[in-house]
Design brief:
Length: 227
């Protein structure tokens, strides 16, 4: 098996889910008596909240180099928003960063989905690091909630979900946004916050939900098992 380095901590709740999923998925193939080699570096979530792009880029590059030196053969970033560092970090290291949008795009293509709605925090929805990757690599268009809903979505993600709070108010809000995105042409929804699948699952709505956490974990497992 190949060794993967995980950069987590933003939030630690999703990092636990990544670790659990990867171990379980590998176990389904090789047997529960064994588990894959993983190296985890957990960052302080305050780094992302400071919104200092230069500091964020420098920190992720430092961590990526540490994981590479420790023996990681690829890197998984255990959250959506930190993928903003990908264009800066990837060219400066010798091992691949498995991009969360590539995992999402491959799944969408299987279902012939060409337009996806994207939910998450403000940087994820309004940034280009998910949308451009999907467009350039898979020719998939991405739409986000209308401007008047962006701040509320960000509040639920940053003040509740990433702190382990899963409320009925947040669930009702995101289900409403999914319907509005569907009305605007979304053929599926990207659960672009790694805690969103803990709040909403496929039984809650008649629209394909693409859990970035699960798809990204599968991507890691395929790399580990060289599939």
């Amino acid at each position: 098996m190949k060794t993967i380095g995980l950069i987590g901590g933003t939030s630690w709740h999703s990092t636990i889910v990544y670790y659990k999923m990867i171990n379980e998925m590998v176990g389904d193939v090789i047997g529960a008596q064994a588990n894959p080699p993983l190296i985890i570096y957990s960052l302080n979530i305050e780094l992302m909240r400071e919104q200092n792009k230069e500091k964020i880029n420098a920190t992720y590059l430092e961590v990526a180099n540490k994981l590479q030196k420790a023996g990681a053969e690829a890197i998984i970033i255990c959250a959506n928003t930190p993928h903003m560092v990908y264009p800066f970090v990837q060219p400066k290291i010798d091992i691949p960063i498995l991009h969360i949008a590539d995992a999402t795009g491959k799944e969408a293509i299987k279902s012939n989905i060409k337009t996806l709605g994207l939910l998450g925090n403000k940087p994820t929805m309004t940034g280009t690091f998910i949308q451009s990757q999907l467009k350039e690599n898979f020719n998939i268009n991405t739409i986000i909630p209308n401007n008047e809903f962006i701040d509320q979505s960000h509040f639920f993600v940053s003040k509740e979900l990433t702190q382990g709070k899963f409320t009925s108010e947040a669930k009702a809000f995101f289900l409403e946004q999914m319907q509005l995105l569907k009305d605007r042409g979304a053929e599926g929804i990207i659960l672009g916050c790694t805690e969103l699948p803990m709040l909403i699952d496929q039984n809650d709505i008649n629209l394909p939900l693409l859990s970035t956490t699960e798809l990204h974990a599968k991507m890691a497992v395929n790399f580990i098992l060289d599939k």
